[in-house]
């Protein structure tokens, strides 16, 4: 298979998580055939995932970073083959400073792209949701049962994906950031951060390959018109 670094592969949508369609419908083994870099969550919102250099890690609700096996299943995840271009360095930067740098001064972008920041973060606040079991609750209810982690002066990698506003629901409009410390003792879905100093790299995509769980009866029969998708995603993120 040709490794196309211009394609962002996504299994499922954030919208399907809103009503609680949290069943795992793709394995990590399958996801990794579509990329060596990515993010996602496990069945029942089982932790926060980050894939770096082809190795998938799960930051669980206890704060542990676990290397995942190929049979780990997910309702939502994305991956791509890394081919980043160095943008420069950034220092003493808030999340707003980071977004301005990544967008190269523009107010928004109409393309998908990924950003890597490797360096030292003077502040990092993350979360990981506690795994739920059937019958699954809604995204809003499940996300209430989460662990919050905070640390200072941590070295690591922030992996970010930017999605255009017109794709909100399929993904999070704007930036969706996950983090993993170099020592693998801290990570998760980022809630807030400040960069002391880091190297910034960007990779733009011209294709979104959207894969849907058509073999899942709950997904195929659900009426999404009854869900307030935008509000639910905004509240959970």
UniProtKB/TrEMBL annotation:
Protein name from the UniProt record: Alpha-acetolactate decarboxylase
Residues of the signal peptide: none
CDD domains associated with the record: acetolactate_decarboxylase
Organism: Liquorilactobacillus mali KCTC 3596 = DSM 20444
Keyword annotations of the record: Acetoin biosynthesis, Decarboxylase, Lyase
PANTHER family per UniProt: ALPHA-ACETOLACTATE DECARBOXYLASE
Enzyme class at the top of the EC tree: lyase
SUPFAM superfamilies the record matches: AF0104/ALDC/Ptd012-like (SSF117856)
One biological process term in Gene Ontology: acetoin biosynthetic process
Family: Belongs to the alpha-acetolactate decarboxylase family.
Pathway assigned in UniProt: Polyol metabolism; (R,R)-butane-2,3-diol biosynthesis; (R,R)-butane-2,3-diol from pyruvate: step 2/3
Catalytic activity field: (2S)-2-acetolactate + H(+) = (R)-acetoin + CO2
């Amino acid at each position: 298979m040709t490794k196309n670094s211009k394609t962002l592969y996504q299994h499922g949508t954030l919208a399907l998580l809103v009503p609680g369609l949290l069943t795992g419908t793709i394995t990590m083994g399958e996801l990794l055939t579509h990329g060596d870099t990515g993010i996602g969550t496990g069945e029942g919102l089982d932790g926060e995932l980050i894939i770096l250099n082809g190795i998938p890690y799960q930051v669980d609700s206890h704060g542990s970073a676990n290397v995942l096996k190929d049979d780990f299943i997910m309702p939502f995840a994305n991956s791509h083959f890394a081919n980043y271009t160095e943008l420069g360095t950034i220092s003493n930067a808030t999340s707003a400073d980071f977004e301005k740098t990544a967008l190269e001064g523009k107010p928004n972008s109409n393309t998908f792209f990924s950003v890597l920041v490797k360096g030292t973060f003077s502040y990092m606040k993350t979360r990981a949701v506690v795994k739920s079991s059937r019958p699954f609750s809604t995204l809003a209810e499940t996300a209430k049962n989460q662990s919050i982690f905070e640390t200072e002066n941590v070295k690591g990698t922030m992996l970010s994906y930017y999605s255009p506003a017109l794709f909100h629901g399929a993904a999070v409009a704007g930036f969706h950031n996950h983090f993993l410390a170099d020592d693998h003792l801290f990570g998760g879905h980022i809630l807030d951060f400040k960069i002391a100093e880091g190297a910034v790299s960007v990779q733009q995509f011209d294709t979104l390959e959207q894969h849907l769980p058509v073999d899942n009866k709950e997904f195929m029969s659900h009426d999404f018109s009854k869900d307030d998708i935008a509000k639910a995603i905004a509240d959970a993120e």
